[in-house]
Design a protein that fits this description.
One of its GO terms (molecular function) is histidine ammonia-lyase activity. By secondary structure, the chain is mainly α. About 55% of the residues lie in helices and about 5% in strands. The protein has helices at about 15-25, 30-50, 75-85, 95-110, 120-130, 150-160, 185-190, 195-225, 235, 240-255, 260-265, 275-280, 280-305, 325-355, 380-395, 415-445, 455-465, 480-490, 495-500; strands at about 5, 25-30, 90, 135, 135-140, 165, 310, 320. Strand 7 (about 310) and strand 8 (about 320) form a beta hairpin. The radius of gyration is 26 Å and the shape is elongated.
């Protein structure tokens, strides 16, 4: 992607985060940002020449904040801070996460409230713009005083040290060296940028996945010979949650024009109430949508924040504060994991109904070609059940599990980084569970022939067939088909059918 995000013309948007993190957009600082950086730096330079101690400028950090550092040792102070805090361990974090946190730290630097020099912010922007990504490892952040360890790895790269990969994934050697001065090491590592970056990416993914969940539910209602009468706008309006209204409208649109639905909407049909996993899809999917909307509001407020400690105020004061605490972000990350688990749980229940002859309204056992010889999709449901079980564990909140650190100076921490990491795993799990439901419902559609599905649900079935997922027939190697279905969910192809056939 050749687009460039200009940082410093206002808060970066959630779309900016996705563009830079996932699609490789470049970045540059605005002229206004450079002016703000010069103003903020002038305050730091004045305090650095003062004989009194000022936290982060002429003192140690955390529990060592009472120690005064002489002027000739302050570059050593910043260098040592970054080196010692770059202490993550475990598997490498995804490139898109690191790029997101770098963009968000740059956004805060660009406000001028951190006191870094313009040339330091420009050097940091140059790393990001060049596609150079520091290696950050899974474990190390407690989500208070910000995501210290992950951000320290990025600051280390700015100093010309540590492990860095280029856009191809190759390790880079002989990085340019940028020397940090008073306040700069601290300013580069003190923010909620890691957890916030993962929240921004999660919101983007969940908005697409919830559209997909509506399509999947429609395919299941259709192929299980359910009723769409319960999705009527006037019935849904009796409970005026906005997310519920959106999901119900999606279900109506996805089922419009279905020959399968029309086939049993006759006076002889006695179906008036479906199981909850069919009938209540708008209520559950809608509640998840409203949770996403709340999380988006929190994320947008956080994107507008300037988080550092100490921070330079508009009137030139340098003040300690607690704005780095990750609780606001951690809470919504945990909240989203609950919604993800519940949407997946309902999806798995719909999948299971297809496979049970007592509940599938005339479909063969396990949708098998020759039941007994063939097992059909029996084990695909096992896979969905295993994923849902894991999602329930991932829904246990991280943000209530504080562990004190820094000799009890940092005696309550947010664990927001951990909440974000488990949400990323949960989103992958939901993607796979929805893929299994769609694959199952598509096979059931074929078994309802010659009755025809709706334009939307039929298009989804066709996507699967065009991608090589076979219809009903003797058992084949199933794992690649599950991966293909998950890929179609992940890349937005399934959700896109809603708009393409309205």
């Amino acid at each position: 992607m050749s687009a460039t995000v200009v940082v410093g013309t206002g808060p970066v948007s959630l779309a900016d985060v996705v563009a830079v993190a996932r699609h490789g957009a470049g970045v540059r600082l605005s002229d206004g940002a450079l002016a703000a950086l010069r103003t903020g730096r002038a305050v730091v330079d004045e305090l650095a020449a003062d004989t009194r101690p000022h936290y982060g400028i002429s003192t140690g950090f955390g529990a060592l904040a009472t120690l005064s550092i002489p002027a000739e040792r302050r570059k050593d102070l910043q260098r040592s801070l970054v080196r010692s805090h770059a202490a993550s361990t475990g598997p490498e974090v995804e490139r898109e996460v690191v790029r997101a946190l770098m963009l968000l730290r740059l956004s805060t630097l660009a406000t001028g409230h951190t006191g870094v020099r313009p040339e330091t912010a420009q050097a940091f922007a140059a790393l990001l713009d060049a596609g150079l990504t520091p290696v950050v490892r899974e474990h190390g952040s407690l989500g208070c005083s910000g995501d210290l360890a992950p951000l320290a790895h990025c600051a280390l790269a700015l100093m010309g040290e540590g492990e860095v990969r280029d856009a191809t994934g190759a390790l880079v050697h002989d990085l340019p060296v940028h020397e940090l001065t008073e306040k700069e090491g601290l300013a580069l590592i003190n923010g909620t940028d890691g957890m916030l970056g993962m929240l921004a990416l999660a919101l983007h993914d969940l908005e697409q996945l919830l559209d997909t969940a509506d399509v999947a539910a429609a395919m299941s209602v259709e192929s299980l010979l359910g009723t769409d009468a319960v999705f009527a706008a006037d019935l849904q309006g009796l409970r005026p949650h906005p997310g519920q209204a959106t999901s119900a409208a999606n279900l109506r649109a996805a089922l419009h024009g279905s020959g399968i639905m029309a086939s049993h909407q006759t006076p002889e049909c006695t179906r008036v109430q479906d199981a909850y996993s069919l009938r209540c899809a708008p209520q559950v999917h809608g509640a998840a949508r409203d949770t996403v909307a709340h999380a988006r509001a929190v994320a947008e407020r956080e994107l507008a924040a300037a988080i550092d400690n100490p921070v330079i105020t508009d009137d030139g004061r340098v003040e300690s504060n607690g704005n780095f605490h990750g609780a606001p972000v951690g809470y919504v990350l945990d909240f989203l994991a609950i919604a993800v688990a519940d949407v997946a749980s309902m999806s798995e229940r719909r999948t299971d109904r297809f496979l049970d002859v007592a509940r599938s309204n005339g479909l063969p056992p396990f949708l098998a070609h020759d039941p007994g010889v063939d097992s059909g999709l029996m084990i695909a449901q096992y896979t969905a059940a295993g994923l849902v079980s894991e999602l329930k564990r991932l829904a246990v909140p991280a943000s209530v599990d504080s562990i004190p650190s820094s000799a009890m100076q940092e005696d309550h921490v947010s664990m927001g980084w951990h909440a974000a990491r488990k949400l990323r795993r949960a989103i992958d799990g939901l993607t796979r569970v929805l893929g299994i439901e769609i694959l199952t419902a598509a096979r059931a559609q074929d078994l309802r022939a010659p009755l025809q599905p709706s334009p939307v649900t039929g298009a989804v079935r066709n996507l699967l067939r065009e991608a090589g997922v076979p219809g009903p027939g003797p058992d084949t190697y199933l794992s690649p088909d599950l991966e293909t279905a998950a890929d179609l969910v992940r890349d937005g192809a399934v959700a896109a059918q809603l708009g393409a056939h309205r």
